[in-house]
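Take a look at the protein record below with the fold in mind.
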Amino acid sequence: MSGGNNGPVPTRLVFLSDLQGIAVGEKVRFLGCVTSYTILTATLTLHHAYPPSPTLSPPKRPSAAYVNLHLLLSTLKTTDTAVGEWVNIIGYITAPRAPSPQKARLPLHKTIRNQHETDREIEQHPTVHIQALMLWSAGAINLGDYERHLSERQEVEKRLMTTTTTTSMATA
């Protein structure tokens, strides 16, 4: 028997704005506000404006997470997809899906124009795609407290990683 870990992959608790820097395949947990739900694709769009970006410069971090809910359709409640609802998500970062067949059949000039518009939109408002494993309502959350506590937690984790790395290098 090997000494490897046979348990589930650990989940990283992050801000929605941190998702862009996380590799495809990583398991994450984050909070977001529902801004839309597309029934045909079972895709939930979430936003969370943290950290607040200066009004003069465009945000460099993702402003939206597109969450695929196909695995949760049998347990999903109507309130889970209501615009304005704050929800917690656990899931895996995925690559963006290929365009739908309807988009592929557009005339070439429209496809190119739409692609340029999409590229410009992604530059201004980067997005990330998630395959949801779990979703639950955040309820009456105090968003300011949540942001402060998670930010403090991330700072402590960062310091611990720096200390661990420095200690490992000194003993090598």
